[in-house]
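Study this chain:
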Amino acid sequence: MINAAFVGGGLSSVAGLGAYSKVWESIRFSSFSGASIGALIAICLSAGKTPEEIRDFLADNVEGFCKFIKGNFLIQQKVDEFLGNRLFCDLPTRCIVSITPLRKNFPKIITRENSGNLTCGKVAALSATLPGLFLPGMVKYNGKIALVFDGGLVLNPPLNLESENAIFTFKRNDKVSKLPWDVRQRRQEEKADLLFKVYTQYGTLGKRNDVYAVYEEGRAVKY
């Protein structure tokens, strides 16, 4: 069993979708996971959307998703429209999404089992609640309510500990970053059984420019 994990990190994270598009027909992934925009990608893949459909969906909506405060509500609305107002618990393939709740002993992971009546759009919006850009989201679990921020702040990406994990990420500066979220991501990657490591050389989603994924062995593929 192999889990496809997508990191958060703004539009740069969409590069992982380009890399995924090169392997998804040859490797069978048993589950998907993600944080922030990576969560949105993971949810859409779990719902059965193809990488090309997700790319076009994001390209058509990226400007709205980046709007101050309002963007988070647009993420929920547009994802729900894109997936037909599907409940997260009804996804045909297992999906794991990280959130950052501002409450002690509150779940940091949303799964099909604990998502209750949350829609896919609501879960995507909760995980993509970037501090400083969006107001905190709100979620209820076992009668307790918590304010929520971006899932990438704590688990970027979340991993499926019951399987191997292939992390789809993007190239960072070669200088070792000491930012808390970068340190956490490195620790997550160290835990993972990486089947392959995919980085982005460059690419821009909004203008539909080409995204180039560079594999560890030096092979370059164009998305």
